[in-house]
Design goal:
The protein is of the alpha+beta class and about 675 residues long. It folds into 2 domains: about 1-345, Beta-lactamase; about 365-670, 5 Propeller (Tachylectin-2, Chain A), CATH 2.115.10. About 15% of the residues lie in helices and about 25% in strands. It is built from 11 helices and 37 strands. The strands form 8 sheets. Strands 25, 26, 27, 28, 29, 30, 31, 32, 33 and 34 form a 10-stranded mixed sheet that branches. A 7-stranded mixed sheet has the order 1-3-2-14-13-12-11, sandwiched between helices. Helix 4 (about 85-100) crosses helix 8 (about 180-195). The two termini are about 40 Å apart.
Amino acid sequence: MKRALLIAMVSAIASASLQAEPVWPGREWARAAPEDRGMSPQRLDEAAAYAQRFGGGSGCVVRGGYLVKEWGDPTALADIKSCTKGAVGTTVLGLAVDAGLLKLDDLATSHYPQMGREREDNIATGWLGEIRLRHLATMTAGFDDGRPPKLVYRPGTKGIYSNDTANMLAELLTLKFDEDLSPVFKRRVMDVIGATPDEWKWRDNQYRPKQIDGHKTREFASGITITHRALARIGYLYLRNGQWDGHRVLSEAFVREATTPTDLPGPFPYYAFYWGSDRRGYYTHMPKDTFWALGLGDSFVVVCPSLDIVAVRLGTGSTKSQLPGGNDDWGARVEGFFRIVVDAVQDAPREGAVAPYPPSPVIRSIEWAPAETIVRRAKGSDNWPMTWGDDDALYAAYGDGSGFAERGEKLSLGLARITGGPSEFVGENLRSPSAEQRGDGPRGRKASGMLMVDGTLYLLARNAGNAQVAWSTDRGARWRWADWKFAESFGCPTFLNFGRNYEGARDDFVYVYSHDAGSAYEAADRMVLARVRKDRVRERDAFDYFVRVDHDGSAVWTKDVAKRGAVFSHPGKCYRSAVTYDLALKRYLWCQILPGKDPRFEGGFGVYDAPEPWGPWTTVYSTEHWDVGPGETGSFPTKWMSPDGRTVHLVSSGNDCLSVRKATLRVSDAAR
């Protein structure tokens, strides 16, 4: 446990070196002493020795764009075997997807009608027409590892590691590009990233037909020989989310999807698009954003965005150079090497943070006002979700207290109206018999989200088995409750808040977030998201549920709540939260409280940002132990944001009060 905590802390680096503008290699990689890049030269020596001890040839470690460690012959080309799949095959697939030549959920036979028809028994299954490109990219098409492969499972029902599954995808892409893939890869990728022809080769096809429609075919299963420096360039392309010194090679959305474990039943729990990925925290000795492409003999490239590291280890292309860790657990063998690289990182972690996502590219840091400047009102009342009303007031809800009435009735759910600025606001209780609830803790309904849209005030109540919607058309005086509930998940739902009366909203939808649990008192592994048209919030059947991000960065939705996917993952750490939109910075700010004994008085939280309501999320701030209690909930009300979006105020239930703390967002040069 301590080891896992240390890895999470190290992965939350906030040093200026990691936040600076990217360094791009020219003909050669720029070099730096390990100490100058926050790394231990002794531990890097140990990593190199470990890589070579088991038959490895050469390799390198790059941090922040600088070559900080190298071993072996930098001009030697190694046969990287199945590392070809992720480093090359996935990249070519991304080129096609981003060019609009195909979509990941297209039926494969719509682009390659003869695929899999070498065997009559494949045709007899009737399943060939059900295979989608996504199945081919995740080894879930149902083919075994024979040559030619046999279709043994219905597509999407089971994962089998199948080399010819990858090779058939290569043939399909040859048809779509109408060209031999080797010159496509050279022209569109390797020339752009500065890998010269003498640094890599793609051999002729050995196991499949050598031509298709008059074009030479290549394999994705294997076939690339390459130097470690050139392979590091491919890793660096992925580290920089698909762009290279101003040139967009792959879309950021595709890179993220390709390196996130599939929700399909892949051959390994960490399997993405031919890449391995630790995003679900499968390995305790690597940061969770680590991903890798690996081949026989343990030739691999490892990418870790949170540490700004690319590492390459080249083997011999046979089991003679295989690292310890077992034959079946490929990721464990990568972990055995990369844990030494992680241990070499010496930068101070951010506030003892346990950050599940890499640092924000827009907001470099948060500067909190001194603790003694925190404004505290309504002592003894917690919760405090709030929204900006059409009359310029903030409408809020409190719990287990009497709100702004010092000797008033204690309520499980009470309402309040707040006017004025963050330092000198005036609050008054808003009495409403149709909204107010009684009962301490989980025994009484409590507000977890509030929102005003077009003059209608909405409230989400937790502790309602699971949650319930209420609304008021007279600014909170009288309320009606929906005759249905969120009965699966959404145990502590909250609204995404935009500006005054929902001004500045991205579209005509209302968005609802929650941790993926039925109770507000249980932590979860992930966050979930729903949406509903703003004029249909009262209707259960009008809600859509987030599934995943598509290759173009858009969200995929479903009407079936059972098919919901994770919009944010942080195993065991997802709890109560609130989301607001910083219009000036064009970033969604998600404040998430970490589960703990009583975060009103002690504990941690994280602030995450994204360009869309569904991500991709990055870390602005993360700590397990703030200097004061962060409260059971926290948010940045949009009314109290400065015009430039850089001064915000955290409203929380810290110290069992309505607590307001000023903060300054330090943004990157690119965001100015």
